[in-house]
Design brief:
The protein has about 625 residues and is of the alpha+beta class. It is built from 14 helices and 30 strands. The longest helix is centred in the C-terminal third of the chain and has 20 residues. Bound molecules: adenosine-5'-diphosphate.
């Protein structure tokens, strides 16, 4: 079918600076959006239009307006961004209405794509993101992306009557993170570090606020941060008006290892995490007991949050999310959120509980750590069903975690559809992957894998992992055996986080025979310190597996010999098939210090750049 034209018009485009050395320029282009592509061409009087660029809509991951305080160096002043293939295209519209038309239309056409979860509302400038100060261009965004919602300032929510609002109790105060110069008449200027009263935050991009003189107007929501914690109320773990004794009472009653809550400390503006544990205390503390940890903030300009050890986060929900997966200095991982009113647990449960009547189980596919894996059908979908043997899995913990895992969606992750707890044994229902696990796939195709295929496999895995990294989710057992291959030969990451529920000690302690020492970073072997950077190490080993067509790393060596050679600074040898450019990345993943290793976001960028160039 012929593509249908949706919008066309002249706007200004900033060069995409795909190469670090390319100059920055602004050029007038004639843009055409149709149902397949966004094209732009140069039109000069008396000359034939010349096509200068074409972006397939299916490659677009985010379209959004740009809010910036940086002076715009071209005559059209209303920027928006199109993020595709790891490149940012900035387009400048002549007026806000025109900008909104394009953003709305592009969002509509791309809403079913694999989109980013978060985006950068401001520009990349002077080697960092102006909105969040991150210094990696491909760092995950800092603001939730809403593919449905339009960042339009029109129609704006009605500004409530300020007189009436002042009588409203529980008003929230926000602090300006940076100055804001109004773009329109209904905007309010912001001055960095001043406080404003939040009047209306129902619109995702533009919040109505009031300054100390009583002036009201709209400001970009990314330019302000909430001061009080009342915005945590949507989280099940937050209890506003609870003191230490009441918290202890509630958590003792709950009585589950890792039951926790976040509450306001006596000190205004400070929060405490209270957590129940049965673990023996080091200095004769009574058992079971509730431990309290104050959420601290760094003295640095960015004021990041942390708990027992310095794992820093820009928001409290991110910090809690991280500690729900990692004890990282706490007596236990934060496992079961507890709140005074209780939460509609049932509602959440419904979404992950698979009805056994809807599940048809078929032939055996293989067997793994937890038991048999069979193919099956669920709601018209072909699925893989893992039957979990009771003695193999800590299933109470897993059920909690399954809810988190089901919220992870990415085209390069094997999707968990749900859990059937009513079946015996309990079943986990996953997306079906026709071509089985990556390590077998590689071995079966030995000698027939092209350079493009191998690089594509590494890129696929890095993309899935970059998503886990951005969700603060640690895989802990990344290896070719834990990736699966789809019917279209795409590689997807599987079994993320699952090692935490294995009951066999031989798997869980780094001293034991089944622990994946050969894929583990030194800090994991020494102190069980897992992080996204320890996943990066494992990813280096996975790349090695790919370029060795499924060979086992350190084939003839025992775990202790491997540890010895790592300690001596030795690394896996360069595979015969690997190009230098990819080998450099592998070695980068195996840097001794986690902080010297690249992030997955950066690895995606590097691998994607290699796929564009000749190796
Ligand atoms: P476990 O996580 O219990 O160790 P595995 O994930 O290793 O189990 O699965 C064992 C085997 O089952 C795999 O090698 C693969 O052949 C098959 N398998 C697992 N998950 C899927 C899936 N989603 N689609 C198709 N086959 C699968």
């Amino acid at each position: 079918m012929f593509p249908r034209v949706i919008l066309k018009g002249t706007m200004i485009k900033k060069s995409q600076q795909k190469k670090r050395t390319s100059p920055c320029n602004y050029k007038e282009r004639f843009f055409v959006l149709d149902t397949q592509d966004l094209k732009y061409s140069e039109r000069r009087p008396g000359k034939k239009p010349m096509l200068k660029g074409c972006i397939e809509l299916s490659r677009i991951k985010c379209v959004e307006t740009v809010c910036t305080d940086i002076p715009i160096p071209c005559s059209y002043k209303y920027p928006f961004q199109v993020f595709h293939d790891n490149h940012y295209l900035y387009i400048f519209a002549p007026d806000n209405d025109c900008r909104q038309r394009w953003v709305r239309a592009l969002k509509e056409e791309t809403k079913n794509n694999y989109l980013v979860k978060k985006y950068h509302p401001n520009l990349w400038n002077d080697g960092k993101w102006r909105c969040c100060q991150q210094t990696e261009k491909l760092a995950t965004g800092c603001h939730m992306y809403n593919p449905e919602g339009c960042a339009s300032k029109k129609p704006l929510p009605q500004l409530p009557d300020p007189e009436m609002e002042l009588h409203d109790s529980g008003r929230q105060v926000v602090i300006a993170l940076q100055d804001y110069t109004p773009l329109g008449d209904d905007d309010l200027p912001l001055q960095k570090d001043l406080e404003y009263l939040l009047i209306n935050s129902s619109h995702s991009e533009w919040w109505a606020v009031q300054d100390e003189r009583g002036n009201t107007g709209f400001v970009p929501s990314t330019y302000v941060a909430e001061k009080s914690g009342s915005n945590f109320e949507r989280f099940k773990w937050y209890n506003k008006h609870i003191n230490r004794a009441e918290a202890e009472d509630l958590l003792m009653k709950e009585g589950k290892e890792g039951a926790f809550m976040v509450r306001d400390s006596r000190q205004a503006g400070v929060y405490t995490v209270s957590v129940f544990t049965k673990a023996p205390g080091s200095n004769g503390e009574k058992n079971p007991r509730v431990k309290h940890y104050q959420i601290r903030q760094t003295e640095t300009e960015q004021k990041e949050f942390y708990l027992a050890e310095k794992y820093l986060f820009s928001t409290i929900p991110e910090l809690i999310h991280y500690h729900q997966h990692n004890a990282a200095g706490l007596i236990t991982r934060l496992k079961h959120p507890v709140s005074v009113g209780g939460c509609s647990e049932e509602a959440a449960e419904d979404q992950w509980e698979v009805n056994p009547e809807e599940l048809v189980i078929g032939q055996e596919l293989g067997s793994g750590q937890f038991g048999l894996v069979l193919d099956g059908r669920w709601r018209d979908k072909k699925v893989a069903v893992k039957m979990v043997r009771e003695e193999c899995m800590s299933d109470e913990d897993f059920k909690e975690e399954a809810k988190v895992m089901m919220r992870l969606h990415h085209c390069k992750l094997v999707q968990l559809y749900g859990v059937c707890t009513q079946c015996s044994p309990m079943c986990l229902v996953f997306e079906f992957m026709e071509n089985g696990c990556l390590s077998d796939y590689l071995r079966e195709r030995k000698g027939r894998l092209s350079q493009d295929t191998m690089l594509g496999m590494c890129l696929d895995v890095s993309e899935g992992m970059a998503y886990l990294e951005s969700s603060n989710f640690i895989h802990r057992d990344l290896a070719a055996r834990n990736c699966l291959v789809s019917s279209s030969n795409e590689v997807k990451v599987s079994d993320f986080g699952m090692t935490r529920f294995v009951l066999d000690d031989q798997y869980t302690s780094s001293q034991c025979s089944k622990f994946p020492v050969k894929w583990s970073a030194p800090e994991v072997i020494k102190y069980s310190k897992f992080s996204s950077k320890s996943d990066v190490w494992s990813f280096g080993v996975l790349m090695w597996e790919v370029y060795n067509e499924g060979r086992f790393p350190y084939e003839n060596r025992s775990n202790s010999e491997v540890v010895e050679s790592l300690n001596a600074g030795l690394r896996l040898l360069k595979p015969r098939l690997v190009p230098d450019s990819v080998h450099v990345l592998m070695e980068w993943c195996w840097k001794e210090k986690p902080e010297d290793r690249p992030s997955f976001a950066l690895l995606v960028h590097e691998l994607a750049t290699l796929t564009d160039t000749d190796l």
